[in-house]
Write a structure and sequence with these properties.
Helix content: over 70%
Order of helices and strands: HH
Distance between the termini: 29 Å
Low-confidence stretches: none
Strand content: under 5%
Shape: elongated
Number of strands: 0
Mean pLDDT: 90
Length: about 70
């Protein structure tokens, strides 16, 4: 199984993001923390479930069976 590794571009964007965080005040940091928590705890798991559901539908259609996953 392939390991999940960030690209060089991802690492550069992360470094820029961290530098910008150092310049923010407390209220701005709280706002960003809430947004990141929503992404990490709500949206990302939902996106993974959706992708898994779509993959399962595609696998069942490969074998000529009707899509009964709903």
């Amino acid at each position: 199984m392939r390991k999940i590794e960030p690209s060089v571009n991802d690492q550069l964007r992360y470094g820029q993001f961290v530098k910008q965080l150092d310049k923010l005040d407390r209220d701005q940091l709280l706002s960003i923390s809430r947004d990141l928590a929503q992404l990490a705890l709500l949206l990302q798991p939902a996106a993974i479930r959706w992708a898994a559901f779509e993959a399962a539908k595609n696998l069942t259609s490969c074998y000529g069976t009707p899509n009964t996953i709903d």
